[in-house]
Amino acid sequence: MRFTSERLLDDGVVEREFILGEIPGILWTPASASAPVSPILLSPPPIGLRRAYPRLVGRARSAAAQGFASATIELPGYGDRPRLPGAEQAAADLRRALEAGEPVTDEIIDALVLPLVERAVPEWQAVLDDLLRLPGIGGPAGYSGGVISIGTRLAAVEPRISAAVLFAGSFVPRVIFEEARQVTVPLHVLLQWDDEGNDRQAALDLFDAYASEEKTLHANLGGHRGVPQFAGEEAERFFVRHLRRKLR
């Protein structure tokens, strides 16, 4: 992890941009801490870091106020990163099906989502490797955001993830439902009930598939970007309960 810039935000949060191999990202840390702070992996929406930055920095500042570090990366195929093979065709097939009012087939969903998951999960693990080597940062780690399939697989395969906030709101391949049965960490799932781009029943079925003994579904009326502020605050309290408790 090579840091390329550093600046102090007006609330004292330190923001550092970094490069890890070909992966650009951003790390936010609290101004001061008396002990190592847990990192939260902030997964961005698949729109590119530049567009997602205002949302991400808001979440990072809130996390810092609770004593957590946060890191995000550019997802494979977005921003200035090379496009994933077949991604444009899969996106075109999805648009065509939606515009025609036709069902979105498993083949379209797999082509659209699985290549992203297969690239993003090992990248997040590599980021976590380097984060936990930095002075002032220590486990356990959390994960927060979407694409929900990325978060599901990462929570299933990465033992250093101790709690996850998952954003429902994307198409889910069938294999991810199987992998959800391997997820046992505490979960807090956010679902916008009227999300125009979300298969609500698929989100409910995925929630049911998780094997976690503690899992909470936080559903609110409204569209994809209508998550109320209090829902985000509940997610912060979730991390305080689980990440701080395990640091003791």
Structural class: alpha/beta
CATH architecture: 3-Layer(aba) Sandwich
CATH C-level category: Alpha Beta
Low-confidence spans: pLDDT under 50, at least 5 residues? none
Largest sheet data: 9 strands, mixed
Number of domains: 1
User: What spatial form do the alpha-carbon principal axes imply?
Assistant: globular
Question: Into which percentage range does the β-strand content fall?
Answer: 15-25%
What integer value in Å does the Rg equal? 17 Å
Describe this protein with a few key phrases:
globular, Rossmann fold
Write a brief structural summary.
This protein is of the alpha/beta class and 248 residues long. Helix content is 41%, strand content 22%.
What is the strand and helix layout of this fold?
Layout: E1 2-8, E2 14-20, E3 23-29, E4 39-43, H1 49-65, E5 69-73, H2 87-99, H3 106-131, E6 141-145, H4 148-157, E7 161-167, H5 174-180, E8 187-192, H6 200-209, E9 215-220, H7 229-247
Helix pairs in contact: 2-3, 3-4, 5-6
Commentary on this structure:
It is a single chain. With 248 residues, the chain is an alpha/beta fold. The chain has one domain: Alpha/Beta hydrolase fold, catalytic domain (Rossmann fold, 3-Layer(aba) Sandwich). The chain contains seven helices and nine strands; from the N terminus they run ββββαβααβαβαβαβα. It has helices at residues 49-65, 87-99, 106-131, 148-157, 174-180, 200-209, 229-247, and strands spanning 2-8, 14-20, 23-29, 39-43, 69-73, 141-145, 161-167, 187-192, 215-220. The chain has a nine-stranded mixed sheet, with helices on both faces. Helix 4 links the parallel strand 6 (141-145) and strand 7 (161-167). Helix 2 packs across helix 3, helix 3 packs across helix 4 (148-157) and helix 5 (174-180) packs parallel to helix 6 (200-209). The chain starts with a strand and ends with a helix. The mean pLDDT is 92.
